Amino acid sequence: MAVYTDVNEDQLRAFLAEYDVGTLLSYKGIAEGVENSNFLLRTSGGTYILTLYEKRVNRDDLPFFIGLMDHLALKGLSCPLPIERRGGGHLGELAGRPAAMVSFLDGAWLRKPQVQHCREVGRALAEMHNAGHDFAIRRKNGLTVTDWRPLWEGSRERADEVQPGLRDEIDEELAALEQNWPSGLPEGVIHADLFPDNVFFIEDRLSGLIDFYFACNDFFAYDVAICLNAWCFEADGAFNHTKGMALIDGYNTVRPLQPAEAGALPLLARGAALRFFLTRLHDWLTTPEGALVVKKDPIEYLRKLRFHRQVASGSEYGLRAKDLIS
Ligand SMILES: Nc1ncnc2c1ncn2[C@@H]1O[C@H](COP(=O)(O)OP(=O)(O)O)[C@@H](O)[C@H]1O
Ligand SMILES: N[C@@H](CCOP(=O)(O)O)C(=O)O
């Protein structure tokens, strides 16, 4: 679910009066998503998504998220365009929450992405990286290697309840990643959560990217690693080399990975798997039974992590020899 805060019609009409979007025709809560409350609005001016930012989103980060969507959309990337208020700015307040409206994107996310979709995602990711290069605001990644230990400390004592031996395995993994995490790779604005549910397609054509609420400044190749994890494993847990190759080829057509980035990919993919494992484990252990949110399985990401740990070379992800040699 993702309607944590209810909105009544009077509140909504008062909120909309601050925008040049016409009058309200209908609205309904959107069940998907986990972080914020989202509503689909129809007005005499068009169709919009209204988001009320919930507790896990830091208010100070909102100018970055909203400014970034505005920047990317104006650069021609297909992503939601924040709607400006009559008095300027994009952020308002509704039902006691910070709130903003963005344009509605057509399309739907794919439950079973195929090879050609992975290629499209790779290309769109690189386009986003290029388009973000002159975005003026910076945001540190709040879930990078230095943040994993405090997150782990919150779950560590109960980890063996989820799988026996997990505590020792993650202790070792975390120490290895902290010691070997790369530095000096090309960086810029990354999406940091470009999972299939955040990418829309119309038939086989990618129609847009959404959900920029984990976006931050970090290594571009880390974003590629997040996508390899999210797009290129099959339901049985096997890594699909053909999908990996397509995703990397699609990326390279727009922004060729440098050899240092390609060489770091196995480690970055391990780190990316650990990052999602840790947030899922935290939610798994803390979300009360009966809460209206779908808990995501941490073990899926533990399996991905184990796969990356035994990867000897980037060629196992589909990198070609020329990508790996400087
Ligand atoms: N601009 C948009 N156009 C169309 N649908 C959208 C748009 N933004 C969000 N949605 C819908 O709302 C759902 C939740 O949005 P998302 O940003 O992923 O929420 P959360 O940040 O809470 O995870 C999406 O799965 C999609 O169905
Ligand atoms: N993609 C993350 C969870 C974040 O969910 P989103 O709805 O904000 O994309 C995961 O799969 O763990």
TrEMBL record:
A single GO molecular function term of this UniProt record: ATP binding
Gene Ontology terms describing biological process: threonine biosynthetic process
Annotated ranges, domain Aminoglycoside phosphotransferase: 27-257
UniProt pathway: Amino-acid biosynthesis; L-threonine biosynthesis; L-threonine from L-aspartate: step 4/5
EC top class, as a word: transferase
Alphabetically ordered keywords of this record: Amino-acid biosynthesis, ATP-binding, Kinase, Nucleotide-binding, Threonine biosynthesis, Transferase
EC annotation from Swiss-Prot or TrEMBL: 2.7.1.39
Annotated catalysed reactions: L-homoserine + ATP = O-phospho-L-homoserine + ADP + H(+)
Superkingdom of origin: Bacteria
Entry-linked Pfam families: APH
UniProt-listed InterPro entries: Aminoglycoside_PTrfase, Homoserine_kinase_II, Kinase-like_dom_sf, Pseudomonas-type_ThrB
NCBIfam families: PRK05231.1, thrB_alt
Family recorded in the similarity comment: Belongs to the pseudomonas-type ThrB family.
Name of the featured protein: Homoserine kinase
Native source species: Hoeflea halophila
Gene symbol of the encoding locus: thrB
